[in-house]
């Protein structure tokens, strides 16, 4: 589910009315992407759910609190320590971006009023919840290191910088005539893309609705003067409905044939997309609660596997944190080497029995204070620092190896967890279970169950000359890449995050452009990034894909790739999947 800026505008107004002034009396964290605040209002209690699941980030109010784990995560404990008994004093949206900030005030020491912020970024795959004070990050659900993003670091101690604002004209405040004038007379891409590009606050879903309401064909490549007048009228009506307080506006949820909520509109829609139906609600919260109930139900076996994987992920996260701290401490090694080298170069200047000395740093010429043991000679003190250096250097190398191995395990677990989103049969679930048993994550049963027939990857007959294969778990991924794939086939995978192996197989000298576009969209869709926009997908001839010796299932390395960027079209994806010939 993807919520647009104008939907969050309506949600912010609703939350201001419902929870401003409420007192936080309990905080829970049911999963690694969900936090809730139990609130005391004047006449009742309510639970404020914040879900930053990349596939369906959302906020909602419920009368029932979600179940909590027996041991609350560290992030939950931090929020409890700082925010319980605080009051929500302010709620605001950053422009029309998908970012909402809660301002929470509470009494500190000496009866001082402290103000802290919960910043909710509902931005698809990068969705996050950030805890800050006076613009400084105290912690967040997801950390973004300088190595991951040098421009926007999200880690404790760093200043909070919001996501870059979407360029364009404010769809709710700028003159409709000005907005429509920003759309070129003739366009080389879809009209909806030009409307999204010209504005801020809407995405593809609302752009299509506005064009449809203005009776403009969705396939049109230009706007006539009459089209422009009708579009101005439609945008004027939208602004009136969403900004005037005395107008009660219905909310519309779009539900796919797979019973998943695609989006929620803060208005009555002009048309229902193909293979979807709509549901009307009196307020935004009812629509979002309905959307949450539509999350695809997992088989009991999938729930067990999900919990096992999440348990292992918590362990690896904790281990990575400890190793990173140890690595930081071991970085003192170089300082000890500099001291030792400088001491050896200045032995004649150091008085025997001294507790300290200041000598020239032989590398930069600055003064270097050095602590000494009075019972050792200057040369023995230098040797002591060499020993410290060698010990820390060895530790540093060992920690770096452990850290790399643990991160590899983390990536592997995330890839298996992602596979669970795509399984549709018990057979596929059983294969993931067996993989986890082989990896030592699940116990191997004493009585081995009979081996069932292997599940098949998705097979899409795109045309008489072209077939596309998609792996839905790591065993299928390896079959797609190394059993079905040959040297000249094209292999695709979403860049740097978990996803399916996709293979484009054709008898033509070059793949059809439409087939390549389909394969790119499928690689983005069958990944952790589904639901996001401008997803990078790597494409490479199969001969450049290798599996390193001893690598975990599904892990490959490749070279000579080209990177394409795509925003998957769910309707198009569903039409492609109807061509699935896998039995």
TrEMBL record:
Q: Which InterPro entries match?
A: NFACT_RNA-bd, RQC_Subunit_NEMF
Instruction: Cite a single GO BP annotation.
Output: rescue of stalled ribosome
Domain NFACT RNA-binding per the UniProt entry, residue ranges: 463-550
What is the residue range of the signal peptide feature? Answer: none
**Superkingdom of origin organism:** Bacteria
GO CC, any one term: RQC complex
| GO MF, one example | ribosomal large subunit binding
- State the protein's name: Predicted component of the ribosome quality control (RQC) complex, YloA/Tae2 family, contains fibronectin-binding (FbpA) and DUF814 domains
**Source taxonomy:** Bacteria, Bacillati, Bacillota, Negativicutes, Acidaminococcales
């Amino acid at each position: 589910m993807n919520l647009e800026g104008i939907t969050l505008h309506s949600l912010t107004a609703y939350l201001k009315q419902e929870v401003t002034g409420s007192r936080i009396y309990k905080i829970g964290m049911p999963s690694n992407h969900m936090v809730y605040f139990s609130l005391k209002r004047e006449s009742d209690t309510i639970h404020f759910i914040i879900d930053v699941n990349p596939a369906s980030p959302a906020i909602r109010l419920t009368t029932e609190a979600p179940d909590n784990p027996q041991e609350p995560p560290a992030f939950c404990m931090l929020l409890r320590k700082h925010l319980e008994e605080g009051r929500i004093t302010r709620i605001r949206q950053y422009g029309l971006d998908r970012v909402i900030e809660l301002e929470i005030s509470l009494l500190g020491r000496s009866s001082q009023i402290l103000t802290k912020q919960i910043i909710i970024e509902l931005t698809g795959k990068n969705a996050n919840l950030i805890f800050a004070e006076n613009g400084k990050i105290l912690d967040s659900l997801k950390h973004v290191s300088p190595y991951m993003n040098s421009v926007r670091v999200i880690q404790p101690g760093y200043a909070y910088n919001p996501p870059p604002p979407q360029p364009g004209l404010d769809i709710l405040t700028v003159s409709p005539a000005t907005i429509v004038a920003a759309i070129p007379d003739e366009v080389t891409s879809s009209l909806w893309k030009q409307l999204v590009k010209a504005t801020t606050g809407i995405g593809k879903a609302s752009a299509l609705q506005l064009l449809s309401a203005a009776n403009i064909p969705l396939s049109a490549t230009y706007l006539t003067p009459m089209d422009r007048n009708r579009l101005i009228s439609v945008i004027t009506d939208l602004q009136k409905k969403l900004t005037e307080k005395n107008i009660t506006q219905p909310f519309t949820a779009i539900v796919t044939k797979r019973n998943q909520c695609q989006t929620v509109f803060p208005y009555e829609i002009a048309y229902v997309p193909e293979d979807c139906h709509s549901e009307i609600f009196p307020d935004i919260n009812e629509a979002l609660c309905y959307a949450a109930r539509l999350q695809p139900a997992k088989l009991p076996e999938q729930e067990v596997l999900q919990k096992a994987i999440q348990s292992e992920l918590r362990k690896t996260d904790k281990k990575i944190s400890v190793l990173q701290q140890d690595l930081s401490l071991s970085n003192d090694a170089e300082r000890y080497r500099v001291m030792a080298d400088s001491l050896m170069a200045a032995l004649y200047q150091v008085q025997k029995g001294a507790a300290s000395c200041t000598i020239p740093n032989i590398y930069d010429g600055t003064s270097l204070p050095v602590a000494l043991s009075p019972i050792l000679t200057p040369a023995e003190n230098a040797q002591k620092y060499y020993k410290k250096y060698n010990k820390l250097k060895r530790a540093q190398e060992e920690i770096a190896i452990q850290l790399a191995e643990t991160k590899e395990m983390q990536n592997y677990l995330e890839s298996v967890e992602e596979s669970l989103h795509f399984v549709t049969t018990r057979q596929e679930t059983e294969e993931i279970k067996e993989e986890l048993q082989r990896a030592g994550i699940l116990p191997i049963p004493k009585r081995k169950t009979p081996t069932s027939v292997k599940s098949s990857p998705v097979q899409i007959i795109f045309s008489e000359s072209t077939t596309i294969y998609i792996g839905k778990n790591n065993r299928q991924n390896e079959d797609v890449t190394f059993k079905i794939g040959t040297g000249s086939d094209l292999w695709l995978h979403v860049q740097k995050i978990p996803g399916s192996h996709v293979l484009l197989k054709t008898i033509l000298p070059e793949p059809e452009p439409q087939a390549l576009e389909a394969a790119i969209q499928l690689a983005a869709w069958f990944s952790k990034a589904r639901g996001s926009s401008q997803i990078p997908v790597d494409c490479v001839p199969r001969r450049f894909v290798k599996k390193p010796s001893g690598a975990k299932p599904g892990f490959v390395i490749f070279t000579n790739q080209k990177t394409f960027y795509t925003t998957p079209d769910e309707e198009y994806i569903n039409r492609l999947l109807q061509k699935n010939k896998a039995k």
